[in-house]
């Protein structure tokens, strides 16, 4: 029974994803990004049929299990573009460091000024890095981890939706600039997004994402201590 | 058919690396998740030619091509937190979005301005 339910859920998720790809092809806009529209369609579907998240995860867990190897797979484009990566190491590192710093400081300070409590400040501090890292950082500070995971999602999908406007407004046209901006601000969801347009940008984004995860986990406890 | 078997086998290799990463992360109490450690392992193994690019190329290419799909179940987790989009919680959403734009602009501009010819399209 469970296997049947799981297969049904997996098939449905694939179907919704394909539908989202189709919609995005027909009406290309940041608001039809497959990751956004798939999520919205599935949430509506589950709400209409009154299916709780735990029940969806009977099948969803199988897809989730593949997220691990999918992140491992990012090594492949990275290796293909290894020569460029080595050449760009210095700007990659400095840019990501600056972004990581701005990300933690701006998130925590704005939350503080608008009157949120310490637990919320902790949860928002690591929102620019990939979920598992953000959860570990938030946990070690004593914040609410599930809230941290939601913040990471918003930063990821928000960045994927907004990146074309941001790059246009700030005149960021190079592969290096775009890849770094995406990886530093929107972690793996952003990386997945630019990877579709350019493997080089996606690889740069991967490096920025990993560097950012390491840097943020090192600097966050210090920065947060300035505000609490 | 042969190609899809090849892809499944290659994804199995990636999965083993992911599990190895998980194990390392847990054993040494590392701040990085198993998947990211697995990726670094694979890079290392590719550079040292322990793993040849042909052994994982098709499978990894497939995973990377459909990467956003694998995020769907975890992003759906957001549905458990409808409350956050109401009332004061909505401020947090705005803050995260503003902060995300700032990071994207700063890292992006530094990359754009310092990349020289290499980073140009």
TrEMBL record, chain A:
InterPro entries: CidB/LrgB. The chain crosses the membrane at residues 6-24, 31-50, 62-80, 92-113, 133-158, 204-227. One of its GO terms (molecular function) is hydrolase activity. It is found in: Cell membrane. Pfam families: LrgB. Belongs to the CidB/LrgB family. CidB subfamily. Increases the activity of extracellular murein hydrolases possibly by mediating their export via hole formation. Inhibited by the antiholin-like proteins LrgAB. In an unstressed cell, the LrgAB products probably inhibit the function of the CidAB proteins. When a cell is stressed by the addition of antibiotics or by other factors in the environment, the CidAB proteins possibly oligomerize within the bacterial cell membrane, creating lesions that disrupt the proton motive force, which in turn results in loss of cell viability. This is Holin-like protein CidB. The lineage of its organism: Bacteria, Bacillati, Bacillota, Bacilli, Bacillales.
From TrEMBL, chain B:
Keywords: Cell membrane, Cytolysis, Membrane, Transmembrane, Transmembrane helix. It is a multi-pass membrane protein. It is found in: Cell membrane. The chain crosses the membrane at residues 7-24, 30-51, 63-84, 90-111. It holds the Pfam family LrgA. NCBIfam families: PRK01658.1. This is Holin-like protein. It comes from Salinicoccus halitifaciens.
């Amino acid at each position: 029974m469970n296997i049947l339910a799981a297969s049904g859920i997996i098939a449905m998720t694939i179907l919704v994803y394909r539908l989202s790809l189709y919609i995005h092809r027909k009406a290309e806009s940041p608001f039809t990004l497959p990751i956004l529209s798939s999520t919205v369609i599935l949430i509506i579907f589950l709400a209409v049929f009154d299916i709780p998240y735990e029940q969806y995860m009977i099948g969803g867990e199988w897809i989730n299990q593949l997220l691990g190897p999918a992140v491992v797979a990012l090594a492949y484009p990275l290796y293909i573009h290894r020569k460029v990566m080595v050449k760009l190491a210095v700007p990659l590192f400095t840019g990501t460091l600056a972004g990581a710093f701005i990300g933690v400081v701006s998130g925590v300070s704005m939350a503080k000024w608008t009157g949120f409590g310490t637990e919320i400040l902790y949860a928002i501090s690591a929102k620019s890095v990939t979920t598992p890292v953000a959860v570990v950082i938030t946990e070690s500070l004593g914040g609410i981890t599930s809230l941290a995971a939601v913040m990471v999602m918003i930063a990821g999908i928000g960045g994927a939706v907004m990146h074309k406007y941001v790059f246009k407004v700030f005149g960021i046209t190079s592969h290096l600039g775009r890849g770094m901006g995406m990886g530093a601000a929107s972690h793996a969801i952003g990386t997945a997004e630019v990877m579709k347009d350019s493997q080089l940008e996606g690889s740069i984004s991967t490096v920025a994402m990993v560097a950012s995860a390491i840097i943020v986990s090192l600097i966050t406890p210090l920065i947060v201590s300035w505000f609490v | 058919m042969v190609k899809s078997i090849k892809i499944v086998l290659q994804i199995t290799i990636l999965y083993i690396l992911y599990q190895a990463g998980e194990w390392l992360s847990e054993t040494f109490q590392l701040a990085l998740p198993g998947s990211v450690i697995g990726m670094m392992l694979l890079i290392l193994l590719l550079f040292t030619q322990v793993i040849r690019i042909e052994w994982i190329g098709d499978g990894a290419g497939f995973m990377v091509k459909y990467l956003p799909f694998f995020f769907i179940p975890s992003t759906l987790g957001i549905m458990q937190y409808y409350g956050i989009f109401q009332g004061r919680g909505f401020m947090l959403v705005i803050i995260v979005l503003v902060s995300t734009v700032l990071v994207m602009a700063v890292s992006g501009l530094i990359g754009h301005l310092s990349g020289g010819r290499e980073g140009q399209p």
